[in-house]
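>> received
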Amino acid sequence: MRRLLAGIALAALPALVIACGSDSSGDDGGDKPGQITVKMFDNSFKPNEITVKAGSKVTFSLPNVGILPHNMHIASERGVYRESPWMSETIGGGQTTKLAWDVPATPGKYLFRCDVHEAEMTGTLTVE
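>> returned
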C-alpha cells in the first residue's frame, strides 16, 4: 500500500511543479490576454520585471496588498516620469486600480515606479 501511495505521489509531482510555475509577465493563471496583475506591496511590486509585446495594449490590474498608499507610473521612452501620461491613481491598502497602456511599437525598456515610494518601489517593462 505504501508503494502504491508513493507511486501516486511521484506521478503527481510533475503536474504540481508545472501548476506552481510562473513567468515574468505577471500572469498568475487568472489574467485574461492583455491583462497583467502587478501586486503592490509595502514597498515593492510583484512582479517587478515584466515583458510585453510591442504595439499591444495591456491593462495592469493593480491590487494594493499593503497598508501604505501606492500607484504605478510608467516613465516616458526617455525615462522621464514627468513627461509620461501613463500613471494610475494612488490608492490605499486593500483597494485595486487599473492602468491601461498602449505599448509603444519600438522595442526597449521602460521604467516604472510608485510615486509615493519612488526610490525603492521600482520595476522594468521590457517591450519586445
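>> Residues 73 and 87 are 4 Å apart (CA to CA).
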